[in-house]
Amino acid sequence: MTDLSYAGTLREITTDAGVLRYHEAGEGPPLLLLHGSGPGVTGWRNFGGNLAVFARRFRCLVLEFPGFGVSDDFGGHPMVTALDAVVRFVDALGLDSVDIIGNSMGGGVALNYAIAHPARVGKLVTIGGIGRNLFSPGPGEGIKLLQEFTEEPTRERLIQWLHSMVYDPALVTDELIEERWTQATDPATLDSARRMYSKAAFAMMVRAMEAADTPPPWAMLHKVAAPTLITWGRDDRVSPLDMALIPMRTIPRAELHVFPNCGHWAMIERKREFESAVLAFLTREDATH
């Protein structure tokens, strides 16, 4: 029987920017899984529970982004180095093409990779976190709580943020809190989080986008050629559902699946339904246009 434990699936690969660590399980077409951001996040915590299902059909590769405490920190803004890490990772493994599942930030990274390397992406699945607010205020409640934790990390603020991620508060267990607290308060990981989510960093990012001559990311989604399944929790308090409207309309081959009674972590909170919908999408034979 395949060992699907943390230690049994953990691998690492050396690049000239540093060591990338990842989890690998299963055989078949390569499926790259990209995690989101936030205190104590890792690829394993996002997707470890889904490997048993996806590894039956795919060679699952759960990449740990630089700057989140598992892979080496490449320096710079972690959202920028994440895309570079994907390029280096896919090249290092010699993969011609991959399907990608990206959670929140990981979905944004996946879309940017698909725009830059259209021939190297088969199908895409995103989980919340893309697009822009149309009817709801931005940033969302969960992002504001994340900023507050980053400014002053306390266990109480971590718990408040975790509750904003889910519909069912029972999912915020003592074990989850302890895991996230240990990872999130590691000095190097906390420094990385502040480069992304401190109020100063967030304000700087907004000013840079306003001053840039290039279009914002949401305005480039029409360039995504890959068939894309957009998944969303109806009750997402981090990236509200109205954010899905622009990606749904502008990604040429996009489909939208909304899970009821579900927050930001659809792959965890609606595990069976998510896995069923994603497997059906990834294994379906599509028309070429």
Beta-strand content: 15-25%
N-C termini distance: 40 Å
CATH class of the domain at 6-137 and 214-283: Alpha Beta
Give the mean pLDDT: 93
Give the number of helices.
Answer: 13
CATH superfamily of the domain at 6-137 and 214-283: Alpha/Beta hydrolase fold, catalytic domain
Within the CATH hierarchy, at the fold level, what is the topology of the domain at 6-137 and 214-283?
A: Rossmann fold
Category by helix and strand content: alpha/beta
GO molecular function: monoacylglycerol lipase activity
Domain AB hydrolase-1: 31-274
InterPro entries: AB_hydrolase_1, AB_hydrolase_fold, AB_hydrolase_sf
Protein name: Pimeloyl-ACP methyl ester carboxylesterase
Question: What do these coordinates show?
Answer:
With 289 residues, the chain is an alpha/beta fold. The protein has a domain at 6-137 and 214-283: 3-Layer(aba) Sandwich (Rossmann fold). Helices cover 42% and strands 17% of the residues. Strand 7 (228-233), helix 11 and strand 8 (254-259) form a beta-alpha-beta unit. It is globular, with a radius of gyration of 18 Å. It starts with 5 loop residues before the first helix and ends in a 6-residue tail after the last helix.
Give a brief rundown of this model.
This protein has 289 residues and is an alpha/beta fold. It is built from 13 helices and 8 strands.
Please outline the helices and strands.
Elements: H1 6-9, E1 10-15, E2 18-25, E3 30-34, H2 43-47, H3 51-54, E4 59-63, H4 78-92, E5 98-103, H5 105-116, E6 121-127, H6 141-151, H7 155-165, H8 174-184, H9 187-197, H10 199-211, E7 228-233, H11 245-250, E8 254-259, H12 266-269, H13 271-283
Parallel strand pairs: 3-4, 3-5, 5-6, 6-7, 7-8
Antiparallel strand pairs: 1-2, 2-4
Helix pairs in contact: 4-5, 6-7, 6-9, 9-10
